[in-house]
From TrEMBL:
UniProt xrefs under Gene3D superfamilies: Diaminopimelate Epimerase, Chain A, domain 1 (3.10.310.10)
Residues annotated to bind substrate: N13, N68, G78, N79, N165, N201, E219, R220, G229, T230
Reaction equation(s) it catalyzes: (2S,6S)-2,6-diaminopimelate = meso-2,6-diaminopimelate
Site (Could be important to modulate the pK values of the two catalytic cysteine residues): H167, E219
The protein's name: Diaminopimelate epimerase
GO molecular function, a single term: diaminopimelate epimerase activity
SUPFAM superfamilies: Diaminopimelate epimerase-like (SSF54506)
Keywords: Amino-acid biosynthesis, Cytoplasm, Isomerase, Lysine biosynthesis
Length: 318
């Protein structure tokens, strides 16, 4: 039996999208996990940061499940949700949809192109929680908002939040980004450790201009990726809390794979974030289910336009 998939990316955060609505592959969760480990391997197979499984939903237009390249399942994936949004909207011939994810049913919709020639989607990032029990982060307190965490660093100021997957973010200088500090502390909190028993996505943010930030993320279950959509959303929210950016205004978020825009909404004591950016298809392929060998591959021609956005982004963050 063949498995059909689409290789896609959001800000260079790349995924293999498998439609289980179209074809019933009869995957078990262990099967989904094994497939993620096998196909995401960049040395031995197609390579990707994760697999997006699209399934039939009883209450929404579709379900998106996300498996990281190490086989762990993530509760959310912002860049992946844009790719899933495009796939579901085009499949159903609609411009907006509701996609069920592990913890929330989220609104997605087609948007005006973020850069010429780039299919663009807006996705809702929600719910947001600062309760440490929601990450979880084991500290003898309820929240960690713009405070030091001496177990990880004497100098950096961190915020911990769940959107709803767990994030730890810090605003840093260029020197911090160039040091090995992010890798070192990310490996610590994503290995066996008492603070973050389930691991955490770790982002360093640098302000690059008015309503412009750069975010680099070490992703739980993957390592450094070109970008992480939920991390860029969480980081945008933190910069609104610090006063570096403003609620309800578009923030350009640059990353190593390109750029997105985030708009942070404050509703009383709660927050939601709009994440707007590309949903780019690279190729579609058919894989032999037993050997994982590629049987057929057809490329899309969308990457040329995307490279122009990347050049623009690189010039800003240089
Ligand atoms: N790249 C994603 C997040 C994927 C999940 C993450 N690694 C986790 O385990 O929480 C995004 O774009 O949000």
């Amino acid at each position: 039996m063949m498995i059909e998939l689409i290789k896609c990316h959001g800000s260079g955060n790349d995924f293999l999208l498998i439609d289980e609505m179209e074809k019933d592959y009869g995957f078990t969760d262990e099967g989904r996990r094994e497939l993620a480990i096998a196909l995401c391997n960049r040395e031995k197979s197609l390579g990707a940061d994760g697999i997006l499984y699209i399934l039939q939903s009883e209450k929404a237009d579709a379900i998106m499940r996300v498996f990281n390249s190490d086989g762990s399942e993530a509760s959310m994936c912002g860049n992946g949700l844009r790719c899933a949004a495009r796939y579901v909207c085009e499949k159903l011939g609609i411009e907006q949809a509701i996609i069920e994810t592990m913890k929330a049913d989220l609104q997605v919709r087609k948007e005006a192109e973020i850069y010429p020639g780039i299919p663009t989607y807006q996705v809702e990032i929600s719910p947001v929680s600062f309760q440490l029990s929601d990450l979880p982060l084991n500290l003898d307190r309820d929240t960690l908002i713009q405070e030091k965490l001496p177990e990880l660093s004497d100098g950096l100021v961190f915020t911990a939040l769940a959107v709803p997957n767990p994030h730890l973010v810090a605003m840093v200088s260029r020197e911090h980004l160039e040091s090995g500090m992010q890798k070192e502390l990310s490996e610590k909190v994503n290995g066996p450790n008492d603070l973050f028993p389930d691991g955490v996505n770790v982002s360093f943010i640098r302000k690059v201009g008015d309503r412009e930030i750069y975010v680099r993320t070490f992703e739980r279950g993957v390592g450094f990726t070109n970008a992480c959509g939920t991390a860029m959303s969480a980081s945008s929210l933190v910069t609104c809390l610090t006063g570096d950016n403003a609620f309800e205004e578009a923030i350009s978020v640059y990353n190593n794979g390109g750029m997105v825009q985030c708009v942070v909404h404050k509703h009383g004591d709660t927050y939601t974030i709009d994440l707007i950016g590309n949903a780019t298809y690279l190729y579609k392929a058919a894989i032999d289910r037993d050997s994982y060998q590629v049987v057929d591959m057809q490329e899309f021609s969308e990457e040329e336009s995307y490279k122009k956005l990347q050049e623009h982004a690189r010039a800003i963050i240089a």
